[in-house]
Amino acid sequence: MSQAGASVRLTLNGRAAEWRADHNLLDGLRERGVDPERVVVAVNREIVARQTWSTLVPREGDRIEVVHVVAGGSDRVVAAEQPLVIAGVSFRSRLMCGTGKFPSAAVMAAALEAAGTELVTVAVRYFDLDLGGRSLLQELAPARYRLLPNTAGACSAEDAVHMAELGRAATGTNWVKLEVIGDQESLWPDVAATVQATRELVRRGFVVLPYTAPDPVAAVHLEAAGAVVVMPLGSPIGSGQGVLDAGAIRRIRERVRVPVVVDAGIGSPADAALAMEAGADAVLVNTAIARAGDPVAMAAAMALAVRAGWLGRRAGRIPRLPEASPSTVAAGVPRVE
After folding, report:
1. Sign of the C-alpha dihedral, residues 56, 60, 62, 68?
2. Most buried pick, 44, 51, 86, 109, via CB within 10 A?
3. Confidence at residue 133, expressed as pLDDT on a 0 to 100 scale
4. 99: DSSP letter
C-alpha cells in the first residue's frame, strides 16, 4: 500500500513530473486545478475511460497525457458556435435529451454523458413506492444538468398547470416543458390550450418551453404569451419519422425571436442535422437515443449531427441548380486531335 506523502516519477504532458503515490487520476487532476469534465486522459497512450479515473492510480514511469476537449478546426469555426441562450441562461450544447425509455439508469447516465447535453427533461408522475425509495433525481447530477420537468400526459390547460406546480416543488426549478395533448392517438398538441396554459404559467413565475404543432401562427401566439422558446414537433412523438416539414421549421424561425427547438419525431442523426439546417436552434431527442441498439453511441452521433447541422446552416449552403455545374473550368482541357 502506498504511503501518504510518497510520490512516483512519471511523464505528464511530455514533462517529468511527480505524482502523489496515493492519488488516483481524478485526485491528481483536481490537485492541479483541472476540471475533469473538460479533458480526456491517456495513460501510456491508452485512452482511459472516465468512469475509471477514481480507481486508476498512476505508477512509476507512466506517461500521462491530459488533453483539452476542444472543437476541431480553425478559431473561426469555434467562434461560429455561439452558445444557445434561453431566458438568459447559456448552454454550450444544442442537444437536449429526455430521460425516459432507457433500459437502465446506468445506460441513461452514460448516454447523457456521451450526448454532452446540459438540459434534460424529467416527467412528473406519482412516486413508485415499489422502487425502494430511489427516484430519477438520484441518478442525475444536479450540478451537471439543468432539469426541465415536463407536463407530458396533460390533456387540459388546468392539468398542465397543476403538473407544472408539482414539478417545481419536486425539482426546485421554475423551468417547465409544457405539453398539452389534444389527440390521444397522434399525441398532437392542443395549441389553444397550450397558449392558455403558457399565459397562466408565465403569470405564476414559470419559464415556459412549450411543445407545439409545426405552425408559424401558433409559434407567434406562444411567443406573445411569454414562452421563452417554441418547440414544434418534427413528426409525432416517438414515431422516428424525422422532420416531415422542414419548410415549417424555417417559417417558424423567420417569424419568432425566441429560440426554436425541434421536439419529437427525430429518428436518426440525419434527422437532427436536417432540423438544424432548416432553422432550429436546438433539438430535443429521447426515444431515438433510448431505444437505439446502442444508446450511448447514438447519443454521441446525435451530438455530432446537431453540431454539423448548426455549422452547416451558418456556413450557407450552395443554391440548388436545375442542371449540373462543373467543379473545374472546361477551358484548357487537353484533347486528342
Report:
1. positive
2. 86
3. 45
4. -
Active site residues: 177
Which residue bears the cell 432548416?
A: 278
Res 336: pLDDT = 54
> Quick one: pLDDT at residue 252?
95
Look at residues 175, 296, 138 and name the one whose alpha carbon lies nearest to residue 164.
175
CB-CB contact of 177 with 231 (8 Å): yes
Question: Which residue blocks in the chain are alpha helix, DSSP H?
Answer: 25-31, 75-80, 105-115, 157-171, 191-203, 216-225, 246-255, 269-278, 287-290, 295-315
pLDDT on residue 77: 46
Cα(187)–Cα(100) distance, integer angstroms: 16
Residue found by looking up cell 421536439 in the block? 263
Backbone Cα Rg of the chain: 24
Q: How many CB atoms lie within 10 A of CB 250?
A: 16
User: With the C-alpha atoms ordered 121, 127, 132, 134, is the resulting torsion angle positive or negative?
Assistant: positive
Res. 245: pLDDT tops 50: yes
**Structural domains in the chain (count):** 2
Residue in this structure with the C-alpha cell 419536486, named with its chain if needed: 170
Distance CA 176, CA 285 (A): 16
Whether residues 89 and 163 share a domain: the answer is yes
Q: Are the CB atoms for 115 and 92 separated by under 8 Å?
A: no
User: How many residues does this entry show for the chain?
Assistant: 337
- C-alpha cell belonging to residue 247: 419548410
Among 17, 46, 68, the domain boundary falls at 68
Span 65-104, pLDDT tens digits: 887 544 344 444 444 468 889 999 999 999 999 888 888 8
Query: Is 333 inside a domain boundary?
Result: no
> 32-36, 125-129, 261-265, 319-323 — which is least confidently predicted?
125-129
Same domain, 55 and 148: no
Question: Distance between alpha carbon 86 and the CA centroid of its chain, in Å?
Answer: 14
Within a 10 A sphere around the Cβ of 137, how many other Cβ atoms?
12
Mean pLDDT, rounded, for 276-283: 94
Positive or negative torsion for Cα 310, 246, 228, 149:
negative
